[in-house]
Amino acid sequence: MENTRCFANRFSDYKGALLPEQGAHTIVPIAVATIDKVLQKIPVDLSDCDGGLYDGPAGVAFMLYHVSECPLFSEHRDTYLKTAKHIIDAAAKYADAEPDKNMRAAFLLGGAGIYAVAAMIYKSLGLADFVKPLSKFRSLWEVCAPISFLECGSDELFVGRAGYLCAALVLRQKLGMEILSKDQIKSICQAIIESGRQYAWRKRKPFPLMYSYYGTEYLGAAHGLSSVLQMLLSYQDMLSGAEKDLVWQSVDFLMNQEQNCNWPAELGAIIERENELVHWCHGAPGVAYLFAKAYLISKGPQYLDTCIRSGELVWQKGLLKKGPGICHGMAGSAYVFLLLYRLTGNSKYIYRAQRFAEFLFTKEFKTGSCSLTSVYSLFEGLSGTVCFLVDLLQPDQSEFPLFSVFV
Prior knowledge:
Shape: globular
Structural class: mainly alpha
Number of strands: 0
Radius of gyration: 20 Å
Oligomer: single chain
């Protein structure tokens, strides 16, 4: 029976040599051509910047910023940054006009992410007024500090508190400065922990922290437990001893939910092998980042082993038919190999990422994968693919877009 979610991986595995045809001389022109294609697809009228960084024009601005940071694209740097500024200014105006202040505080779908990327682009252009979008970002902590600021679920990555913390982490990394005060970070971490504790207690869970989003108890990176815990680990210096214990107990609980190298999309579900989700948003390719963070902090070998098993599943089932993007597409799969390369230094993972990059441009992929609605977008479309191609050329610095593990 043909797998409806992925193509068969017919590549032979690593034999000790990388693919010479996947070097800068090949990938730079492909990336530049893809960027040109993306820029032709962006709506000319930027009055509607809905979709935030996830699938709105703002995500394209981040991609251009990311490419401009890579020395291999230095001749395009100025053009890309100016274009990025034009797009992000329109997106910021759109976010400023958002009547729902809760949406303004959303990382991937609203204002917080847009302001963060605007600050990064302004700083790269050497503009002193990068502090303007930065102060807009900072002011949003008050919005997401109350324990139940969103009815649908206040803690997840796209619109909730974990996303706000994630954006602050990326900003700290890119701008090299503290973004939020210790008290602000503590209050947000405490709200996440208290919210998860109350939910777990109310629902009589056998572990200390759990969350739901629109009534579903997700486990994956997109809306689920793994990215919430990942952000708490990223700020674990701000937690009390008792709070740390709750977080690590929950990390270990989630590790035990593994089913054959994968995780169900929601708590308690049984994975059907022929229909399983192997995506960054739901499944091992996103959950792996939590265990990578756990490994970097604790050096516990069990966490690295879990990441490695996730990588094996992605090698088998990660040639996804859902397009070239990072959320539930090919680039999202391939980023797991770049993560594993950074954790282990094993060149096998660069080779595997190269093979996935090669497959992206085959006839089999182009004819057999789903057509996209937002072909230019960062998470579903080609902007995420470009970020991956750029990171394939600098694997020592590679990182899943806007989802820092190494900070």
